Each structure stands twice: as structure tokens, then as C-alpha cells.
Amino acid sequence: MKKYWAVLLLAMAGQSYADVPLQSGDEIQGSWKLEYTKKSASAQDTLKREDTWAFNAGKVTITHIPRDGTYYDQAPVNYEVENGKLKISLLGRSDKFDVFSLVEKDDKTMTLKGKFGDIYHFNKK
User: Fold this and answer.
1) CA-CA distance, 76 to 97, in Å (whole number)?
2) Could you give the C-alpha distances from 99 to 30, 73, 92, in angstroms and in order?
3) Is 11 exposed, middle or buried (0-12, 13-18, 19+ CB in 10 A)?
4) Cβ neighbours of residue 64 under 8 Å, at least 6 residues apart?
5) Predicted local distance difference test score (pLDDT) of residue 18
6) Out of 89-93, 97-101, 102-106, which region has the weakest mean confidence (pLDDT)?
7) Minimal CA–CA distance to 79: which of 52, 103, 97, 106?
8) Which tens digit of pLDDT belongs to each residue from 50-73?
9) pTM to 2 decimal places
10) Is 14 helix (H, G, I), strand (E, B) or coil?
11) Cβ-based neighbour number of residue 42 at 10 Å
């Protein structure tokens, strides 16, 4: 019986974080406040964040990034949607990308999953 419940819980956890393909960059346009990140969909511990990611016309600007007790803003970098995934250029390396999958999105919230399973939860600004 315990094995049955464990399998059921794993199946439910997998369903709640299934990837949703992005159709275009228009779906994520605007400013999104990064509320928290966590190491995986099943992780309990979250890391509170304060960054704002602003998507506009093929560029994303990430501002208010905490570092060593202060904050900094990143210069705008290109982003694109390819094969249903969000690809954001690395600063100074336009040929390298961070790749994200869309987990869920509505008018007020968005959850992305990084290529190593990290979860990013945003609220619309």
C-alpha cells in the first residue's frame, strides 16, 4: 500500500510541473518580478528573490539582482523562443544561452524551469 501511495505522489508531482511549449515571445512580454527559486519541482526550500525580468521586443533586462548586500542591473540581452523553449543569451556570450521551459503561466504568475531543473516563480508587475 505504501508503494502505491509513493507512485501516486510521484505521478501527481510530475503532472504539476509538466512543460508547456511557448508559442512566441509575446506570451512573456512585460515585467515579471522573480519571487523565489528552488532547486527542483519537489524541493521544499525556496530562495526568496527580488529580481525583475523585463521582456520587450526580443530583449530581456534583469534588474535589482542581489549581490554582496547590494544590488546591480544587468545590461539587456537577446532572448528568443525556439522549439517551445525560452533561450536567453548569456551576458557577453551571444552564442551561449540559458534555456528555460514554461511550466505554467496565467495573467498574474509564471513559472519557468531551468535546464538543470531549477524552478523560477514570477509575479507580473
Assistant:
1) 14
2) 19, 20, 16
3) exposed
4) 50, 51, 52, 71, 73
5) 64
6) 89-93
7) 97
8) 999 999 999 999 999 988 889 999
9) 0.81
10) helix
11) 14
Nearest 5°: phi and psi at 20?
Answer: -115, 120
User: What stretch of H or E contains 102?
Assistant: strand 93-105
- 56 to 42, 60, 122: CA distances (angstroms): 31, 6, 16
Amino acid at 16: S
Locate cell 526568496: which residue? 48
Which of 92, 48, 79, 82 is CA-nearest to residue 66? Answer: 48
